[in-house]
C-alpha cells in the first residue's frame, strides 16, 4: 500500500482535509512532526520517522515546520533533503521551503526573473536602515519592517521616518524593509491570495483587512474572486521563479506600477480560501502528488 506522511507541528484541519483526500484514493496516511524524527545511521536509510519504523514513505507532504533554533531547523530540513535524495517525493521539498521562508531570498529570485515586486532592502547596519527610511521619506514613501522568517502578518511595522526605527529596532539583528504600497482607495486595504499547484492557478480570493495588514489570520475578511488572467499569470511566474510545486502567492495592486508579488508561501494555509471556492483544494494537491508518484 502507498504510504504518505503529512509533516506538521500541529495537526488540525489541514491535515484532516489531506487525510480524507488521500484515504479516498486508497492511500495510507501517517501524521508526524519533523521535530520527532531523527537522523539514525543504525537504520538502512539513516532516517527514523515515527510510525514507519525502519521503512520510508512513498511521499511526504510538508504542512508545517515547528519554530526552533538554527540547529534544530537545519536538521529538520536535512531530513527533508535526505528524503528527496532517497527518492521520496516531497511536497514542497526543502529547497523550495528554503527559497521562500527567507523573504530576502524570495525577493532576489523574483527580481532576477523580472517579476514585479515592491522595492526591498535587507541589511544589518542600523545607519544604513536609517538612511533607507530617510530616502523613502524624501520620496514620499513609507517602508514596512518585516521579520525575515515571519508569517501570517505577525510583526509588521510601518515606518514613516527614521525616528520610527528607534521604537522597534532590527528583527533578529536584521532590517528587512519593503516599500509600503498604499491602497487604491483610501482606507480600503486589500490584496489577492492566489493558490497555485504545478504552476497553475486553481483558486483566488481577495483579502480585505480592517487595518493595512490583510492576512486572514489577522482578521481580514475573504471574498471569492474569479481567476484574473493577469494575476494568475503573475502568480505562476512567481512559483516558477522560486521553484515550488504549490504555494499561496500574495499579490497587491500599485497605482503607479500595477500588480506586484508581495510574497510566495510554500507552506500555505487554505482554510479561508476553501470557504470562498467550490474547488476541493486538498483533493487537487493529492491528485498532483499521485501524478508525481506514478509518473516518476
TrEMBL record:
Alphabetized GO MF terms: ATP binding; ligase activity, forming carbon-nitrogen bonds; metal ion binding
Gene Ontology, cellular component aspect: cytoplasm
Matches recorded under Pfam families: RimK (PF08443)
Swiss-Prot/TrEMBL keywords: ATP-binding, Ligase, Manganese, Metal-binding, Nucleotide-binding
Domain annotation ATP-grasp: ranges: 107-290
Keyword hit for Cell inner membrane: no
Family matches, as Gene3D superfamilies: 3.40.50.20, ATP-grasp fold, B domain
Protein name: RimK family alpha-L-glutamate ligase
Alphabetical list of InterPro entries matching this protein: ATP-grasp (IPR011761), ATP-grasp_RimK-type (IPR013651), Rp_bS6_RimK/Lys_biosynth_LsyX (IPR004666)
